Amino acid sequence: MAAADTILALAADLERRDAAAAARLARVLELAEQAERIGVRAAELHAFLDDAPARLADLDRETASARDALRAAEAAVAAARRRADEVARRGSEEACRQAAHELAHAEERAADAGARVERLEADAARLRSSEARARADARLLLGEAADAAASVAGLERVSASGRDVPGDTLGELPGWAARVRAALFVVRGQLEGERERVVREANELGASVLGEPVTGASVALVRRRLEQTLGG
After folding, report:
1. Are 220 and 195 in contact, with CB atoms under 8 Å apart?
2. Please, which pLDDT band fits residue 232 given cuts at 50, 70 and 90?
């Protein structure tokens, strides 16, 4: 009975070690995925915010030009309307039709010019709104990176480069994320190797007791089979 208790205690310890390594591995994978996401999002936000001022300046120039064109078109409408009124008083029927046609054409051009101004103003408003959201997202992302860095620093076996702080700007985050992922990749390999050794030990223990190979069985399964066999 003492021998059986010892074997079952060994199996329980192996299962505990396997579960602990599995939990650490899951956390490592979670942090690696988070770092990758942060790095990708930081690159996107950095590119957008870097480009936004020039795009806004272009839109402002286009809008100013469109407003000038609208004022000119509105002046043309006013002139065409005065001519149409004058022709209506003294001109022929053909002249009236021509003046009315010119007025309609001028009004159409003015409507087009007004619609262009509205489109450009809406585009600029959307871009400014997107820029404001991006800056808010950037602040949140920098905070998330700082929290993730603290979590990574709290892990065992992480190299010094993996413990680097992420920095205070978006431009620094992709590099930080790459260093963290590289460091966590090493830790992942170590933990996977540790789990493989524990599984091998459990399989060897099971085979020695059960009298048959149990290669590939999980540690938990080996322990259950041992408990069934030894009456634990």
Report:
1. no
2. low
Amino acid at 143: G
Alpha-carbon distance of 172 to 53, in angstroms, equals: 20
Q: What is the pLDDT of residue 108?
A: 96
Distance of alpha carbon 82 from alpha carbon 88, whole angstroms: 10
Range of the domain at 194: 2-230
The residue with tokens 């272009």 is 58
Residues 85/86/87/88 CA torsion (nearest 10 deg): 50
Number of other CB atoms surrounding residue 176 within 10 Å: 22
Q: Give the whole-angstrom CA distance, residue 196 versus residue 18.
A: 9
SS3 214: coil
Residue 90 has pLDDT above 90, yes or no: no
CA-wise closest residue to 168 among 150, 137, 141, 148: 141
Question: Whole-angstrom Cα distance, residue 202 to residue 12?
Answer: 10
pLDDT tens for 23-68 read 999 999 999 999 999 999 999 999 999 999 999 999 999 999 999 9
Q: Is the pLDDT of residue 118 over 90?
A: yes
- Cβ-Cβ contacts under 8 Å for 81 (sequence gap 6 or more): 103
Contact 3, 214 (CB under 8 A): no
The per-residue pLDDT for 155 is: 94
Domains contained in the chain, number = 1
| Planar angle of CA 112, 115, 117, nearest 5 degrees | 110
